[in-house]
Specification:
The structure holds three protein chains of three kinds. Chain A is an alpha/beta fold. Chain A has 14 helices and 13 strands. Chain A has two domains: 256 residues, Type I PLP-dependent aspartate aminotransferase-like (Major domain) (Aspartate Aminotransferase, domain 2), CATH 3.40.640; 128 residues, Alpha-Beta Complex (Aspartate Aminotransferase, domain 1), CATH 3.90.1150. Chain A starts with 46 loop residues before the first helix and ends in a 13-residue tail after the last helix. In chain B, a hairpin with a 5-residue loop joins strand 11 and strand 12. The relative contact order of chain B is 0.13.
Chain lengths: 484, 468, 129
């Protein structure tokens, strides 16, 4: 497809500004030295042409309303249309973020109510909705831990993560000024308790744990993990990426976790938008709550709502305003819609579906830990690798069957990993169709491996030459707007 | 039972049989009894879609917004015109429900949109490259300073005293682990004393941060700053810019900035109470490998056809982990798309006109307001782009004016209390959506409000201020 | 798998050739095949002091980055600037045109710690070419 720059036709106008004809009627008062000399050369076109351009681009994408995304740890569930209506209400969408408190009582009430309900769902003392994404929430919590220990006069420099951790964990630790220490997983796929006990010490600040872990397994010795971490005076942090497995089943505050983040674009079904926006609210225990970001939407004694800036221990501000409000509105509508029982039914059905797929696939594929899993199951493509067919090839061949591939090559501790998370949104016919596709590909790997290795065959483009794209970078269109 | 789970009881029974367990409970056996949530979650039960939307509509109705009032507030987010076509494209499920484009073969729509966004940002900023966007303008600025701390030796960063105050707070929070000292440059009215960026002042600084226009709408001498910062060992020159101003104002690339950051919202998507937003991050080519965030590139597929892909991923957390250039795992893809589509609909001509008419209308409004006795420009010597600060008479409270203006149907601006240099006032912005008739009505209402506050009917805010 | 006899090797998959008292260093055939298509090589500045087994640069493919470890202590005398435009030379000719740095060793005994071709072959579990 051509880019918008190549289909540009100077002179064709799309959207008109009000009162364009009054341009130049009054001075703008800006001295010449501030004015742009060389035009930016932005593309010009009429509305219908622009609309067709982006519509044609859009249909090149896979998306949830087309078919399933069995992506492990991404929780690609259905994004309710109702949430879009909520977020588009003018009383939310057209709020200016600098407005006075008396003008935004509805927005503040929504935030406070959402904070309070999330705290109850999580069993935590307080919630901040400011972080704009999961990794942002991770970093914010680590900054809180930093301040907490500084206030106590304790010098703790290390963050402990399992070797199965998502890459954002060690990256956030580095950004938070910590050193990362990895502890190995045992052959049951859970944190090696003895190794953990050796790794934890007086210089440990936080242990970051995904629960269930990235192998889709609940850490059965979670209480021992918590005890070891807390006995050393360190804090226990939950990476909430996999919360879909345990929402309504476990309240992280009961473990107890001291800090955690949630991914609203996962558990609370806000749309991924092709890579964002998401939202990564965080929650804290009573001891850590004073460190949550400021300002904090709050309810006053007389029932009105305000932004509490009087938070002397707060780490401060992590977002220009109060977070991704439009996403928070969507997630809040999702929470209200589901309620107590509805949230519990999410994890029940998500875990059921994942185990169902495990049983359908474990004959042909090696399952990394072939026992009851939670909301996701991790396979290893080892058997297929021995036939010369890699997990990458299996993923690409799945595209021909109309599915987006599962998460591949993560977690790092499983060779040729394939991580499958169906979510609670998919019906049994879709699950069967997906399982059949995987089994068919396993058969092809045995009988006709070339068709897998050369996949995909039916997608809008074939495999992309990524090395070429990196060796000869073309990161923006450099030619002038216009045809030719 | 929600409408979103499709399994019937019969489906569930069949699945349990396949799994080989007799009850759902057995699937949760790994969870220790003592932490199982018994007795259900302590929140209300769920309701249907109409009831959910009813509750939310009630909350929305409690807000006063730019939908019902004419908005003259700025401060980083602006009531700009968002074309209907932009919303239509962004609400296509192909764009809104799709995943991060790691599997390029089925994500060409998203990847091409990112590439077009990167191109537009690069052209507007006149820098070599842009990434696929960050959370917002404030966090993009923090990440730019963190990049500078890796590229230069030093323990301080010099910043304009007139930085968006929320951005300054983000810097305070996110730079804490770096140990960088944040040093404010001296002010000169509502501008920065750029002459103070001497070789001596630069010692030990990893970067110099200026905002253009600054928080008060005032235009800074970016060219002089660029000249003072020329050279391979100098601190990095970081410009935090209003993206919609760049159609009319000299861009960062023209005055020698190394990195440009800013908020993409003014390019054309709704304010949504401050988020989701989209941070812009553009830089000279030499910083490519240090840049945070996703980047899309144009290449070829195995058949030789044009194909887009995420590239330079080895900088990112999922590969580099603790050594990544950032922990960021998201871009504001859908908002970047909206900014791109609005820009495509406006075109070069439309973008320039939008900037020009809003600058003309703002200048006109400032002249008319300062004809009101006691109202003056907070810095009469500063040139400004579509946003300006006025000083009110000493006895008049900005919040009282805002309230009176709100009663007359206006979101009049942002209260400035105190103003740098003394006194109190308002920050007022004019976008291309504002009509001449609205500007006239604003002046009339404003005059009445000021006179009422100075004369007889004084508001509680003014009275309590005077009593101090 | 190509493992030239006349070179020495590290456990991090670098090779060393002693050329007239200067150590020429690159990565092995095994390493380049594990990494896949190389897209970028980050090399140190000339004159930089290196310590044995300290990282001095990195080699990047599409999906991974690996640090390069110095087999000897010494001073960087030269770097292969051709790799800037042609990182693929590391794939096509890892022991020849794909050389990376030339180091003037400060401690010749460092070389004794390195593996021979046989030891390296055994280490990577490969058959010698």
């Amino acid at each position: 497809m051509d880019t918008i720059f190549e289909i540009c036709r100077p002179g064709r106008r799309g959207f008109r500004i009000p009162e364009e004809a009054t341009e130049g009627r009054e001075p703008h008062g800006i001295p010449n030295e501030f004015l742009r000399k060389k035009p930016a050369d932005l593309p010009e076109n009429a509305e219908l042409a622009v609309l067709r351009h982006y519509t044609r681009m859009s249909i090149l994408n896979h998306h949830i309303e087309r078919d399933m995304y069995p992506l492990g740890s991404c929780t690609m569930k259905y994004n309710p249309k109702m949430a879009e209506i909520a977020a588009a209400m003018p009383g939310f969408r057209d709020l200016h973020p600098w407005q006075s408190e008396e003008e935004i009582q509805g927005a503040l009430e929504l935030l406070v109510e959402f904070q309070e309900r999330l705290a109850k769902v999580l069993g935590m003392h307080a919630v901040s909705l400011q972080p704009a994404a999961g990794a942002h929430g991770e970093l914010t919590c680590l900054l809180m831990a930093r301040k907490y220990f500084a206030d106590r006069g304790e010098k703790r420099t290390k963050v402990i993560v399992p070797d199965s951790a998502h890459g954002t964990n060690p990256a956030s630790a580095t950004f938070g000024g910590f050193e990362t220490v990895e502890v190995p997983s045992n052959d049951r796929g859970e944190v090696d308790i003895d190794a953990l006990a050796k790794a934890v010490g007086p210089d440990s600040a936080v242990m970051m744990l995904t629960l269930p872990n990235t192998l889709g397994l609940f850490e059965s010795r979670i209480l021992d993990i918590a005890r070891i971490v807390h006995d050393a005076g360190a804090l226990l942090y939950m990476d909430g990426a996999n919360f879909n497995a345990i929402v309504g089943q476990v309240r992280p505050g009961d473990v107890p976790f001291d800090l955690l983040h949630l991914n609203l674009h996962k558990t609370f079904a806000t749309p991924h938008g092709g890579g964002g926006p998401g939202a990564g609210p965080i929650a804290a225990s009573a001891a850590l709550a004073p460190y949550l970001p400021a300002p904090m939407p709050s309810r006053s004694a007389n029932g009105t709502y305000f932004l509490d800036e009087a938070r002397p221990k707060s780490v401060g501000r992590v977002h220009s305003f109060l977070g991704n409000f439009g996403i928070l509105v969507r997630a809040y509508s999702y929470l209200l819609y589901h309620g107590a029982d509805g949230l519990r039914e999410i994890s029940e059905n998500a875990v059921l579906s994942a185990n169902y797929l495990r049983m359908k696939l474990h004959g042909e594929y090696e399952v990394a830990h072939d026992r009851i899993c939670m909301h996701e199951v991790v396979l290893s493509g080892r058997r297929q690798k021995a036939l010369g067919v890699r997990t990458m090839d299996i993923a690409k061949r799945l595209l021909d069957f109309g599915f987006h591939p599962p998460t591949v090559y993560f977690p790092l501790i499983v060779e040729e990993a394939i991580m499958i998370e169906p979510t609670e949104s998919e019906n049994i016919e879709t699950l069967d169709r997906f399982a059949d596709a995987m089994l068919e590909i396993a058969r092809e790997a045995r009988e006709n491996p070339q068709v897998v290795k050369n996949a995909p065959h039916t997608t809008p483009v074939g495999r992309v030459d990524e090395a070429g794209a990196a060796r000869n970078p073309n990161l923006c269109w450099s030619r002038a707007c216009g045809p030719g | 039972m929600s409408a979103f789970v499709q399994h019937t009881d019969a489906d569930r029974r069949a699945m349990l049989r396949t799994i080989g367990v007799s009850a759902l409970e057995e699937l949760f056996a790994d969870i220790p009894e003592s932490i199982r949530a018994k007795g259900g979650l302590p929140i209300e039960q769920g309701v249907t879609e109409p009831e959910t939307l009813g509750k939310l509509a009630k909350l929305a109705a409690k807000n006063v917004s730019a939908a019902s009032h004419v908005c003259f507030a700025g401060g980083g987010m602006y009531d700009v015109a968002v074309p209907a076509a932009t919303g239509a494209i962004a609400s296509r499920p192909e764009f809104s429900t799709s995943y991060t484009p790691y599997q390029a073969e089925v994500s060409q729509g998203t990847l091409q949109a990112i590439y077009e966004f990167q191109t537009i940002v690069a052209r507007l900023t006149a820098l070599d490259l842009s990434n696929a966007s960050m959370y917002d303008g404030g966090t993009a600025l923090a990440e730019a300073v963190i990049l500078a701390s890796g590229a230069r030796e030093g323990n301080r960063v010099l910043v304009t005293p007139h930085l968006n105050p929320h951005h300054r707070e983000i810097l305070n929070t996110m730079l804490e682990p770096t140990g960088l000292e944040i040093v404010e440059l001296p002010r000169s009215g509502l501008r920065t004393d750029v002459a103070a960026i001497t070789a001596d002042a630069q010692k030990g600084a990893v970067a110099v941060v200026l905002q253009q226009p600054n928080f008060y709408g005032a235009l800074e001498d970016m060219k002089a700053a660029g000249q003072a910062l020329q050279g391979a060992t100098k601190p990095l020159f970081i410009a935090s810019v209003d993206m919609s101003s760049l159609a009319m104002l000299e861009p960062p690339g023209a005055y020698g900035a190394d990195i440009a950051v800013g908020e993409a919202q003014p390019l054309g998507f709704p304010m949504s109470f401050g988020g989701p937003a989209a941070g812009v991050f553009a830089a000279k080519a030499e910083y490519l490998r240090r840049m945070p965030g996703r980047i899309a590139g144009m290449g070829k597929d195995v058949h030789g056809n044009r194909a887009f892909t995420l590239t330079f991923q080895t900088r990112e957390q999922h590969i580099r982990r603790s050594k990544a250039t950032s922990n960021i795992c998201t871009n504001q893809s859908l908002l970047a798309l909206m900014a791109t589509v609005t820009t495509a609909l406006l075109g070069e001509t439309g973008r320039r006109l939008a900037a020009k008419v809003s600058a003309e209308k703002a200048w006109s409004l400032s002249r008319r307001l300062t004809q009101i006795p006691g109202v003056e420009l907070a810095d009469p010597d500063a040139a400004f782009f579509r946003e300006f600060a006025i000083r009110l008479p000493r006895e008049v409270s900005p919040r009282a004016i805002l309230r009176k203006m709100r009663e007359r149907g206006f979101l009049a601006g942002i209260p400035l209390d105190p103003l740098p240099g003394g006194g109190r006032g308002l920050l007022i912005a004019v976008t291309e959506k504002r009509l001449w008739s609205e500007i006239e009505a604003y002046v009339t209402a404003f005059r009445a409000a000021v006179e009422a506050e100075r004369g007889g009917a004084r508001s509680p805010e003014t009275v309590s201020q005077a009593a101090r | 798998m190509n493992i030239p006899q006349d070179l020495k090797y590290t456990k991090e998959h670098e090779w060393v050739l002693l050329d007239d008292g200067v150590a020429v260093v690159g990565i092995t055939d095994f390493a380049q095949s594990e990494l896949g298509d190389i897209v970028f090589v980050e090399l140190p500045s000339i004159g930089l002091n290196l310590k044995v087994m300290e990282p001095f640069g990195s080699v990047e493919s599409v999906k991974s980055v690996s640090d390069l470890y110095s087999p000897v202590s010494g001073v960087v005398a030269d770097v292969n600037t051709r790799l800037t435009a042609n990182p693929d030379l590391v794939n096509s000719d890892p022991f020849g045109e794909g050389w990376m740095v030339r180091i003037e060793p400060s401690e010749m005994s460092d070389l004794d710690q390195l593996l021979t071709a046989e030891e390296y072959a055994e280490y990577i579990g490969a058959e010698q070419a």
